[in-house]
TrEMBL record:
Organism: Methylomonas rapida
Catalytic-site annotation from UniProt: 94 (electrophile), 166 (proton acceptor)
Role played: Involved in the gluconeogenesis. Catalyzes stereospecifically the conversion of dihydroxyacetone phosphate (DHAP) to D-glyceraldehyde-3-phosphate (G3P).
Descriptive protein name: Triosephosphate isomerase
Reactions it catalyzes: D-glyceraldehyde 3-phosphate = dihydroxyacetone phosphate
Amino acid sequence: MRQPLIMGNWKMNTSREEGVQLAKALAEGLGSVAQEVAVCVPFVYLSDVKNALAGSPIAVGAQNVADQASGAYTGEVSATMLADCGIKYALVGHSERRSYYGDTNQSVANRFCQALKQNVIPVLCVGETLDEREQNRTFQVVDEQLDAVIDAAGIEAFGKAVIAYEPVWAIGTGKTATDEQAQEVHQYIRQRIAERSAAVAEKVQILYGGSVKPDNAKGLFAMPDIDGGLVGGASLDAKGFLQICHSV
């Protein structure tokens, strides 16, 4: 039985004080839950938020990780550095990184591998744009994004990773895939993994990451292949995020 995971992505938001207060509110309000909970926060606040969450079950993740181990890569943050700070997760291939900052399937695969080497759990984000969906290319795009990582890391790597399906057309637009639309792609991803390893496919957590909110979370999380959510804007509101956590 896969354990659900609810992960907040704060993106480039909050001040240091706001982040600490949000983390404390989450820790105080979470209570006893069976699922895993994590927040991915800006690099400069990782240590502050981790300290604020000390003693709580909420894990901390980074929003990106370098595709190189170390060296002359100004502005990058390596997986070694994240591990050194006790960070559990790192997002790789988020649609905003792919769209705005030139991340390619290959560079995302490299980031994934770097995280794994340092026992930081990579959260591989995959998903299609509105144009790609309208051209019936959803599965082709997802295949290309998954295959780049499988080729680089091997299928067994997904036994130590998380996948997040994020339809790009449903991020920050107010649009959300229906429960059935989301389930269709999640099922496809799991079947795609199962073609290489049924054991890994059964184990891997696949999160939905397209505008998850308190009012749609329960329906999404009830789908058999949706193991939780990668929550964007709603994770900046403690009350709303906690409602999502308790929707599992």
